[in-house]
Design brief:
Layout: H1 2-39, E1 42-48, E2 51-57, H2 62-68, E3 78-81, E4 91-95, E5 98-104, E6 107-113, H3 118-124, E7 132-134, E8 147-152, E9 155-165, E10 169-178, E11 182-186, E12 191-202, E13 205-218, E14 223-230, E15 232-235, E16 238-253, E17 274-276, E18 287-290, E19 294-300, E20 309-313, H4 317-323, E21 326-333
Parallel strand pairs: 1-4, 5-8, 10-14, 16-20, 17-19
Antiparallel strand pairs: 1-2, 3-4, 5-6, 7-8, 9-12, 11-14, 12-13, 15-16, 16-21, 17-20, 18-19, 18-21
Length: 334
């Protein structure tokens, strides 16, 4: 009897150990599953219909993620990933298909596509080069309502010809020169290229030309022009901006010249800083700066002041005589 009880205790201990091992194994599997599930969670950005949203997901398919986000894909819609596989930080972009009218060998039909070029649409529809070609620009940008014609190529020929290359003009900004000033620092010469062109035919009728290659016979030399970009000038009142510089013939006059009243054509009192101009060249009221004279305002006119002539009002006869007549730069201020 005692021996029987000992055996029973041993069997129960063995069974308990087995059950414990099984339970531990089950708990380990559950733990690993939960851990793996949590480890697989990722943040994905969805761009669709002009909106962006960030979702956290354990799914590994774009379709499943979009479905959970409430985004429905049409039969011709497409999804782009910015990574090779779905991972944390992946961006999903939904491309919505749009309608395009396509004509193939004269037969028109409407299709839905996400392709952005005529060649891309032709390839998507199975009309591949060299047997088929989009007419016009193969890289034509497509949008809703675009029309694309695709033709069957039944023949082709190649011709070579020479073509002149027009001189390119390169303009360089130079802040050491006034705005409006220019200096040609290199005279250009035309170039010449040899062009190899392919002509495509459909039933003997030319339908498209496309350049195969171009080789220089004579390189084009560009014309290079320096253009002034400096728009500030240093004055006794500091740095001021100007919009143009005029070279003008300057003379001097006194407040009592003319009718002797000392009043300008605009009603201002004649004093230093007032200058007479041709209003067709410099509108009255324009602020000016003249090196060697200073800041001024165009507020007077004169019978002899026509075109690029300017009369500067001086304070004394001696100053006017000393100034005489000379060429000056006139800065038209902003």
């Amino acid at each position: 009897m005692t021996k029987y009880l000992v055996m029973q205790k041993k069997n129960m201990a063995t069974l308990l150990r087995r059950h414990t091992s099984l339970l531990l194994l089950l708990l380990a599997v559950v733990f690993m599953t939960i851990s793996g599930f949590a480890w697989n969670e990722k943040s994905v950005t969805i761009l669709a219909d002009g909106q962006a949203q960030i979702v956290r997901t354990h799914l590994n398919s774009a379709e499943g993620i979009l479905h959970d986000a409430g985004i429905t894909l049409g039969p011709k819609d497409a999804v782009l990933l910015n990574t090779q596989t779905l991972q944390n930080g992946t961006q999903l972009t939904v491309l919505r298909a749009f309608p395009v009218k396509v004509t193939i060998d004269g037969v028109a039909k409407d299709v839905m596509t996400v392709q952005t070029t005529a060649q891309g649409l032709a390839d998507e529809l199975g009309y591949h080069a060299p047997n088929y070609v989009p007419l016009g620009d193969s890289n034509q940008h497509l949008q809703a309502g675009s029309e694309v014609a695709i033709a069957h190529v039944t023949g082709r020929s190649v011709k070579t010809y020479e073509q002149p290359v027009e001189v390119q003009v390169i303009r360089q900004r130079d802040d050491s020169m006034h705005i409006g000033e220019q200096e040609v620092i290199q005279e250009g010469t035309p170039g010449l290229v040899s062009v190899e062109e392919e002509i495509l035919y459909q039933d003997g009728k030319g339908i498209k030309k496309q350049i195969i290659s171009q080789n220089d016979i004579k390189r084009m030399v560009p014309t290079i022009i320096k253009e002034g970009s400096r728009d500030v000038v240093e004055t006794s009142r500091g740095v001021v901006r100007y919009r143009e510089v005029l070279t003008m013939e300057a003379s001097a006059y006194l407040p009592g010249d003319g009718d002797g009243r000392g009043i300008t054509a605009t009603g201002m009192v004649a004093r230093r800083g007032v200058v007479a101009v041709d209003p067709n060249v410099i509108p009255l009221g324009t602020r000016l700066y003249i090196p060697g004279y200073g800041m001024a305002i165009a507020a007077d006119t004169g019978g002899a002041i026509r075109g690029h002539k300017i009369d500067l009002l001086m304070e004394s006869y001696g100053e006017a005589m000393e100034f005489g007549r000379r060429s000056v730069e006139v800065y038209v201020l902003q």
